[in-house]
Amino acid sequence: MKALAHMAAGLASVSVAVVIGKHTGHPFDPAGLPLYYAVGVGAALLPDFDHCGSTIGSGLKTVMLLLSLGMIGAIVVMGPALPLARLTVPLAVLAYYAAAMLGGHRSPWTHSLWPLLGGTVATIVLASWLRTGQLWVDGALDLGIAFAAGYGSHLLLDSCTRYGVPLLWPWVSRNVGPRLVTTGGPAETVAVTLSLVVAAAPLVL
Q1: At a CB cut-off of 8 Å and minimum separation 6, what does 3 contact?
Q2: Torsion-angle region of residue 135: left (phi > 0), alpha (psi -120 to 50) or beta?
Q3: Is residue 86 part of a domain?
C-alpha cells in the first residue's frame, strides 16, 4: 500500500497499544506520546526502504550514500589508526541495506517477522542506552512497543494486498495474507479512514 495508508495505520497501531496499556496496568507516559507516535509512524514506513521509489526509500538511499562516503573518508584520513570497532555498526547497517536492496521489494529482509523482532529489540536497546544506560526501563520498552506496533501494521496491510508478504519465512517460503485488495484502490481509502478513526481511540477510551 501507499505511504499515506501506512502512516495512518502506524498512528492507529500506537493508539491501540496505548489503549491496551491503559487497561492492562501498563499506561504509556503521556509526556512521551509524541515520540511514541513518531516512532510508530516511522516504523510503519520503514519496511518499504527496499523500494527506492517509496517515500522512505528515496531519502534512505541518500543517507546510505553519505554514510558510505563518510566511512571511506574516515578510512582514508585515519588509516590504521582508525579503531575497527567503530566501523562495526556502520558496516552492519550498510550490509543489511545492501542485502535488502538485492532481495527486492517485499523480501524476507524487510517484510517478515525477523526484521520486526530485530527492529523492536534494537529500538529497546538503543533507547535504553541513550536514556539511562539500563536495559528494559519503561520508556525504552514503550518505544519498542511503538516500533513493533508500527512495523507490524505495515506487514498487516501489505499482507492484505494481492502480492502478500513472506511473513513466516523461512518456515513458509511463499507469501501469505488475505490478498484481498489492490494498492491504490478504494479499499485503501477505506483503510486510511478506519485507521484515522482508530487513531483517535485514546481520546475516548
Answers
A1: 45, 48, 54, 55, 56
A2: beta
A3: no
175-191 confidence digits (pLDDT tens): 998 888 887 778 888 88
The CA-based dihedral angle spanning residues 170, 171, 173, 177, taken in that order and rounded to the nearest 10 degrees: -110
Evaluate whether residue 91 is within a structural domain. no
Considering the domain boundaries, does residue 69 fall inside one? no
Q: Considering the domain boundaries, does residue 97 fall inside one?
A: no
What is the number of structural domains in the chain?
A: 1
Mean pLDDT across the chain, nearest whole number?
Answer: 88
Question: 165 has which bridge partners?
Answer: 176
Q: Does the structure show a pLDDT above 80 at 86?
A: no
pLDDT band at 31 (very low <50, low <70, confident <90, very high): confident
pLDDT score, position 69: 92
Q: Domain range spanning residue 20? A: 3-51+104-204
